[in-house]
């Protein structure tokens, strides 16, 4: 696939789902500046900057604060500290994920008065609870370097705020009041991401990596939306396309170390156990009901997705590891579709696609134990994180015509009880 085709597919997707909104706020008069009793240093590590505490600045060694808190000590790239100075040498880096040394290019300035008190709450919620765990091996970056870069990267900042707001709206009793703000930030993130992608080959490695971070943040945000299936599928495909662009241009990423298929195979898939799915009867029924859809497959999209779903079910019969490999094949089938083909596949009137999506949701629910295994423990876990996907399944089933609905009745019945338990709060992880 050519670079031009990749860019066209990304631009078309972003433009199709771009939602814009803006607000004009009165300019605020800044209070008189209070002079500090000491000279403020800008050379501290990212963790100390985030906590607003004095850093010992023991670069290239971890500072005492990070050592005592058992945190990965990361320093900002020297180009951002020494204007006009030389870049940091590679010997200044520490073990673990490394922030890129390339400065960001021509990002729009973000003014502090454009954000509200709620936005600070969304940002804090993202840092403590709602940060993504993908790409693999990047969880520390999501709490350190990536949010620290957001102030000069509009699409990333609005994506982070949208993710924090959407997750907060899902888990708190009065969360619906944040929905409008979440959608507004998502629209701004999509618009800014489209502008960034329009630069094409002028994008540096860091530019592309931060675009990928934005795409992942928007993917997780869609995953928490009650009507987010369409947006979720679009952003999953966007992540795959941007990843391919990074690997084709630079062979690897400085920020995300586990992007290539080889890296994922060696460092991620090898961690998945070889145990089989606990309910083999459910897999047999899933395969039998999937095969009922086969006579309805009318185009390449249907056939490719059908085969990927079947391979995933069959892989789960052998082991959790092979089931996970099969799941990646489903996402690969979305990436390989042409743009118009993919949009037709997502059409809500495409009932065959809807039925196939219901099988995809069933697989996602079956694979949850594997997903928990591959991510680091969180300070808090919320059962309602899983609710939107069950709502997607219920909505798909309810909108299908009776002849097609009968083909996926088992999938709907298997997901419906859990939806009720998640909504009532009677289920725990």
TrEMBL record:
Residue ranges of domain Zn(2)-C6 fungal-type in the record: 44-75
Pfam families cross-referenced by the UniProt entry: Fungal_trans_2, Zn_clus
CDD domains listed in its UniProt record: GAL4
Region of interest (Disordered), ranges: 84-109
SUPFAM superfamilies in UniProt: Zn2/Cys6 DNA-binding domain (SSF57701)
Key words of the record: DNA-binding, Nucleus, Transcription, Transcription regulation
Gene3D superfamilies: Zn(2)-C6 fungal-type DNA-binding domain
Molecular function terms, GO-annotated: DNA binding; DNA-binding transcription activator activity, RNA polymerase II-specific; zinc ion binding
UniProt xrefs under InterPro entries: Fun_TF, Sterol_Uptake_Regulator, Zn2-C6_fun-type_DNA-bd_sf, Zn2Cys6_DnaBD
Record's protein name: Zn(2)-C6 fungal-type domain-containing protein
Organism: Aspergillus avenaceus
